[in-house]
Amino acid sequence: MLLTITTTRYPATDLGYLLHKHPAKVQTIPFAAGDAHIFYPEATEEKCTAALLLDIDPVKLARKSGPGGNDFALEAYVNDRPYVASSFMSAAIAQAYSTAMNGRCKDKPEVVDEALPLEINLSSLPVSGGEQLLRNIFEPLGYEVRLQPAILDTQFPEWGSSRYFQVSLKNTIPLKTLLSQLYILIPVCDNNKHYFVGDHELEKLMEKGQGWLDGHPLKELITRRYLKHIGTLTQQALDILTREEGTPEEAKPAQEKVRLHDVRLQAVRDILLEHGVTAVADMGCGEGKLLRLLKDNSQFKRILGMDVSFRSLQIAAGKLKLERQPESQKDRITLIHGSLTYKDKRLAGYEAATLVEVIEHLDPPRLAALEKVVFECTRPSMVIITTVNAEYNIKYEALTAGAFRHSDHRFEWTRAEFEAWAGRIAAQFRYSVTFRPLGDYDETVGAPSQLALFKTSAS
Fold first, then answer.
1. In a domain, 387, yes or no
2. How do the residues of the chain divide into helix, strand and coil, expressed in percent and rounded to 5?
3. Final residue of a domain: which of 195, 218, 243?
């Protein structure tokens, strides 16, 4: 199986620096199912082509897979894997070109982020969905797609084309982005993976899909196929992809002077200060904006941030400068990766929990799990929840009737709906609850956001 990458950007031999593979050498990298050979059919200053030849050993493949559990008893021995671009090719890209895919180049760092004219050729790409799906996957990313389907049998042309394509892709794009997209999309086209998929694959999807997957029109299909149709992982990934901290996508009324999200965060901080809270867990902390507000006040001795997005936690850690904290402050702020729909012992022991613009990003059937985790299993003395007020949407000129403020909102409640939900929660889990508006108040439709403060009798 052959993959080639060609550039005509002068000097084209910079491709060798980016890939960390010298054009004058043939290199072989062994991996579990065979060997990957890297060589350059052409390397001049005008044009340079790097080739990745994947040589899968059918014996190794059979020994690794074995017939047990396959739908077809001989599948480990009779299959197309040695001859097509599949998840084995993705694994080879990650192993052979890992430095380039991670955007590192010691000798030519200035070229790493440069958009280069690149052409990719794949000799045999299996596509479950045919030509139109292949185009729908790559063309929204700016690729010019040329392809040639393979005939099922030349002796019987009436049988039509197979699902295998010879593919040429052209784009002007940074090499690191190209490799990340190929890494994700090759097994997506095939709709198959040769290895176990778990949380680590979700993290890879978030890392390699950053900056392009969230806006792709087929992001749900790509996510589902990449994660082997595992429902819980797929839903978790889609939550991450479409939920952004704050409301960068949220419509703004014409006269809004102060960012609404800042109003929310400051209101939550002030309530925590007013009630003397010293240990707080921000559930759904995103990139850590509330955590940074709390960090600046010495009243808060223990601060925890939890989010379903590993990437958001990495950003939060950077902005909080956790690595530079003095030893005396090392244990003051903790970041954890987790979901609010699953019981988590790490959330125990905090006086207050905050959920700022979180609940509306969950499908309504999943709210029951969140309710149990927060109010029954974790049970802090105080819970602060904010969410948008749907009645206020008429004040947003950009919103059409019935539209939500953010593309990932699964629902938006009126004041009455929010108060009914919060009242039921308070009664069920033995809390008291009070409400307050957030943002500029309108006598008819209320404020743009709404806050519920839950307290146990002890608080």
1. yes
2. 40, 25, 40
3. 195
3-state SS, one letter per residue, for 260-284: HHHHHHHHHHHHHHHCCCCEEEEEC
The pLDDT value given to residue 78: 61
Give the mean pLDDT of 314-328. Answer: 81
- Asked whether 308 and 206 are in contact (CB, 8 A), the reply is no
| DSSP assignment of 207-237 | HHTTTTTTT-TTHHHHHHHHTTT-HHHHHHH
pTM (predicted TM-score): 0.54
Q: pLDDT tier at 69 (50, 70, 90 boundaries)?
A: very low
* CATH code assigned at 320: 3.40.50.150
Residue 157 sits in which domain range?
Answer: 2-195
Number of domains forming the structure of the chain: 2
Cβ atoms of 413 and 421 closer than 8 Å? yes
In a domain, 224, yes or no: no
Identify whether residues 285 and 419 lie together within a single domain. Answer: yes
Q: Is the pLDDT of residue 446 over 80?
A: yes
Question: Domain ends where: 175, 195, 215?
Answer: 195
Q: Is residue 68 scored above 50 in pLDDT?
A: no
Which value, to the nearest 10 degrees, does the dihedral of the CA atoms of residues 412, 413, 415, 418 take?
Answer: -130
